[in-house]
Amino acid sequence: MLIAVENLTKTYKTYERGSTFRETLASLLVRKTKYVEALKGISFNIGKGELVGFLGPNGAGKSTTLKILTGILHPSAGTANIMGYTPWKHRKKYVAKIGAVFGQKSQLLWDIPPIDAFYLNKAIYGIPERQFHQTLDEMVELLNVSELIRKPTRQLSLGERMKCEFIMAMLHRPEIVFLDEPTIGLDVVAKDKIREFILEMNRNGVTFILTTHDLGDVEHLARRIILINHGELVFDDSLEALRRFSGAKKIITLTTHEPLPDIELPGITVTKKTSDYNVELELDLAVLELNQFINIISQTSLISDLLVQEPEIETVIKDLYQQEKRSKDE
Amino acid sequence: MVRALRIHLQGIKTAVATRMAYRGDFFISILIMLAMDFVIPLATVFIYQTGVTLPGWSMYEILLLQGVFLLVRGVAFPFFFGMVWNTIERVENGTFDLLLIKPCSTLRMVIVTGFDSEDLGKLLGGILLTSIALSQLPPPSMLQWVQFGILFIMALITMFGYGMILAGLGIVWIGNFRVYDIFFALTNFAMYPSAIFSKAIQTLILTIVPIAILGSIPASVLLDRVDWRVSLLATGSSLVFLLVSFWFWNWILKKYTSAGG
User: Fold this and answer.
1) Which domain holds residue B228?
2) Domain count within chain B
3) Mean pLDDT, rounded, of chain B
4) Shortest CA distance to B5 belongs to which of A107, A124, A116, A97?
5) Residue A262, Cβ neighbours under 10 Å: how many?
6) Is the ipTM beyond the 0.95 threshold?
7) Alpha-carbon distance B67 to nearest alpha carbon in chain A (angstroms)
8) Best CA proximity match to A298, nearest among A266, A238, A256, A250
9) What is the Cα Rg of chain B in Å?
10) Which terminus of chain A has fewer Cβ atoms in its 10 Å neighbourhood, N or C?
């Protein structure tokens, strides 16, 4: 295994302060300490060449996990063995073999061209001259940025900057790359280019761990999903398995020639009614088979169009979070 | 060692290139820096012209103290003291993490990315003021220059120690640039002869809070106005201070919690 994480736990010490002026003044003298369990013992393994989507709602513990795995933070307990290193113990040696792209934190330098920042990285990572130029040329061609890397960073668009961020993270040829919201704020064209680049690098054997709220990224890139919520691992399997998790549910878009009556049947949830003739619903095949559903509808209305789709990954994840919340409440 | 030098040189080149993006601002900043650091020496000149003096010290002797102090800061501020504002700023805006994912010591990274070319104005000012003062004083012997060289290095070591302590405070005392004010207020003591202070303050600024080494002690060596035992004590204090600062920096670095994701 390239990455083996066992019972990773992180507890933060924070201070509570009230919102009123009196409470603010009081907090200068006495502060109420609060311990937050950001990670409650998560464990997982990742093999070489995998492209894993590491998902969870805000505050789930994704960033904390990523920071521990990149050697930025020390965990409160647990172990992590990545390429034979413990990130927080062998930080310097370990980070020489990993790369990271943070969608909201730039590694480029605002006032000077990206090429200058690349040269700084060359010195920091001790990249040999030949390897540096070879990798740079390769990346520049793949991302089509030969002109851009010599323009001041502040003159580049967000998409162009992100391409350069990727070059910055890949110049030392890392074995593992951590991506934290790499396509945030990008337009469709830029997203596609970045996704293509990630897939190409992954084909070359680079392992990627992707944290994102953009489920388009997940669907296009990740073959495996690790889902965490409230610091606990709630799902770890393939994207297909995640889809199956929602049970045998289908999304049906139905159009009829006659006005549709109100559909109130077990296994059917109407999600959107566009008109009397058009409706979108969720069908639970475990309760009602598709042919039974068609028969029932055909008895009252003549079907003119029927579209059967898999539920969107977003819906599946939302269901998963809600199910986890319900089981916790019980 | 070669790699470390390469990293520093590249850091300096990058920082200068960054400042050159706004050339006008760069030169004006250097001039402003130079002018600001000449305020106290100018005040000294004006005071001496009115006939008021520090007993036993000529105007040029005082200017030499202030020149050496400026020279120490002129080397420290551009080349490594930028670690302080760099750390405070990065911890506040969450980009300190980016330094931790580089295969170098965090201390080196905050220094490399904190090179402050504007402060080269201090170095210019220091050279200018020291030269002016020395031109009006008896020339020091070779032995005095050697002693001065050693004490000057100790002064830089002490500045490095202060840099680590202030940068470390920036990690736990988030976004608080007041550490600079505290430091500047304290270091003003280095611009005057230690002998003018009470015995208790003299001991304090020579040992526990080594400030005298930042200006008055090395300059006094050039003037042959300091006992060798005091120089030795100042050297020892600087080395102990450096060790304590290193320990403090490493201890506080473990307390870094990073900004929310």
Assistant:
1) 2-253
2) 1
3) 89
4) A124
5) 6
6) no
7) 34
8) A256
9) 19
10) C
B42 and A CB contact within 8 Å: no
Looking at CA atoms only, how far is residue A93 from chain B in angstroms? 6
- In a domain, residue B260? The reply is no
Q: Are A108 and A152 in contact (CB under 8 A)?
A: no
Confidence of residue A330 (pLDDT cuts 50, 70, 90): low
Strands in A232-238's sheet, in edge-to-edge order, are: A98-102, A176-180, A207-211, A51-55, A224-229, A232-238
- The predicted model scores a pTM of 0.82
> Is a pLDDT exceeding 80 seen at residue B239?
yes
| Residue at token pair 């933070």 | A73
Q: Please report, for chain A, the start and end positions of each structural domain, with discontinuous segments joined by +.
A: 47-243, 247-310
pLDDT for B117:
84
B235 or B38, which is more confident: B235
- A114-125 vs A129-143: helix crossing angle, rounded to 10: 140
Is B182 an 8 Å CB contact of chain A?
Answer: no
Q: Is A10 on the interface with B (CB under 8 A)?
A: no
Q: If we measure between CA atoms, which residue out of A291, A198, A290, A208 comes closest to residue A248?
A: A290
A153 and A116 Cβ atoms separated by less than 8 Å = no
Contact (CB<8Å) B98/A105 = yes
Q: Does B97 touch chain A (CB under 8 A)?
A: yes
Domain A47-243 has CATH 3.40.50.300: yes
- Tens digit of each residue's pLDDT (9 = 90 or more) over A305-321: 989 887 776 777 777 77
Give the DSSP H or E segment for A161: helix A158-170
To the nearest whole angstrom, how far is the Cα of B252 from the nearest Cα of chain A? Answer: 13
